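The records we work with from here on pair a chain with its fold. These numbers are not coordinates but entries in a learned vocabulary of local backbone shapes. To see the layout at work, look at the sequence and tokens printed below.
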Amino acid sequence: MNKNTKPDFKDQFIHVGLDTHKNSWKVTERNNKMELKTFSTDPGEKKLLTSLNNRYPGAKIVVAYEAGFTGFSTYRKFKELGVDCLVVHPGHIPTNSAERIQKTDQRDSRKIARELENGSLKSIFIPDEADEAFRSLVRSLGDLTTKTTRVKNQISSFLLCHGLLSSKPKSNGWSIQFRKELRQMKLSSVCLRMKLDLLLDELDFFIQQKKTLDKQLKELNQDNQTIDALMSVSGIGWISALKLKSELISMVRFPNNDHLAAFVGLVPATHSSGEHERTLGLVSSGHSELRSLLVEAAWIAVRKDPAMLIYFSKVAARKERNKAIIQVARKLLNRIRAVWISGKDYQFSKTA
């Protein structure tokens, strides 16, 4: 072949595993079950693709990276450039013992490229930008709740530490009147007064931010049929419905109840050895926040819905209560899927 003739990789695949970080990417390239190259490069989809096309002209480029801090922006940029890209769950990548013991960026990129070429990787669900923005906004509501709780705990600790309060206020005891009394409380020094006022200002700010965001979300979703249907299910209120809608996004992605339960993490973990199989509780994977939400909602449902109470009582007769409530949560999830798909409110019945 003439030395000036360019190589032609037409009909060949170059599988690229990325380990993405803020300042650099680890890149591994594979072809025909061989590792061609592993290197570090500055972040940049277009720059990397240009480099790959120069080395492997005519090749079909396929890229995969772990879901992480870059979110789906890297995926979207590669798609705009015409490159197939997978975003994979870190826990779903086949890993050998050496990779578990010695985890490095280089090993991660090699592992991703290897499993991408083997065809063992499956991309997670990619929301569109509008759905992703909505989810981010709803998560901000949860962040504000966390921040509000943190400041309340700081104020309680401050008051208890300086003998200004005999016991910690209850969660529903932070009324406007109570906060006003704290601002008028006589303290032994100017420094203590300044400190308490600083904490109260922070608390008032987060409370107001939360109220404003809650109002805005209600205005945005005042005609949302899915959220209205979700709120008809026992145990599911406004905040729970918002979280379910923003995190699940679409029910089409779950072909049946079992797939949905697996995503949330309401399925048992099992260990099989020979003829023996043990149940180890719930799987560690899954959406832990939604799982907690559903378990909490299940406790509310058994108090409000006679059918759910009957079901819980039957299961609790042969299992521990904490295990029985998991089955109620699973049944609640089935109801959620049903009303989501139909778009109609849940109709109460005498049997669960």
Notes: Residues 129-220 form one domain. The chain has three domains: 13-118, 129-220, 226-342. The first strand starts at residue 13 and ends at 20. The radius of gyration is 27 Å.
